[in-house]
Design goal:
The protein has 136 residues and is mostly helical. It has a domain of 59 residues: Orthogonal Bundle (Arc Repressor Mutant, subunit A), CATH 1.10.10. It has five helices and two strands; from the N terminus they run αααααββ. Strands 1-2 form a two-stranded antiparallel ribbon. Helix 3 crosses helix 5 and helix 4 packs across helix 5. The longest helix is centred in the C-terminal third of the chain and has 14 residues. The radius of gyration is 29 Å and the shape is elongated.
Length: 136
């Protein structure tokens, strides 16, 4: 029976080698390559390139940049009333983040909320559509 235990020991899976602790400078990530292979990543690592983009592949925006993007869209379409989801789809950004940016623009006086349900917004400079005057 001892011979059988010995053969089972040999036939079993060998243990994986023990992992060694690495220091920060010991192993660096390889530089990122562009998709066409010309290396136009400007010296950034793959992790840096991935961290600089969102789920849709667009670059992540800096602090206050979404608000600027939303304000420029409203300024470019002054008479259009938009919901956060419509504008989020056009800008390819989160509707919740766009809604928060729109509310900040309303607080700053750069946009107007024209409807509470559904929430609709337009540029501040645009005038509300004229309604027919009632004769009394």
């Amino acid at each position: 029976m001892a011979a059988r235990a010995e053969t089972m020991k040999k036939a079993g899976n060998p243990k994986a080698p023990a992992k060694t602790k690495r220091t920060n400078g010991e192993r660096k990530a390889a530089p990122a390559q562009s998709q066409n292979g010309n290396g136009a990543s400007h010296g950034r690592t793959v992790a840096e390139v991935i961290a600089a983009t969102n789920k849709t592949g667009l670059p992540k925006l800096g602090k206050g940049k979404l608000e600027e993007l939303v304000a420029s869209h409203l300024k470019g379409h002054p008479k259009a009333e938009v919901t956060p989801s419509e504008l989020g789809n056009k800008l390819n950004r989160s509707s919740g983040a766009v809604g928060n940016a729109l509310e900040r623009l309303v607080t700053a006086g750069k946009a107007v909320r024209t409807s509470d349900r559904p929430r609709r917004y337009r540029h501040k400079a645009a005038r509300a559509p004229k309604q027919a005057a009632k004769k009394a």
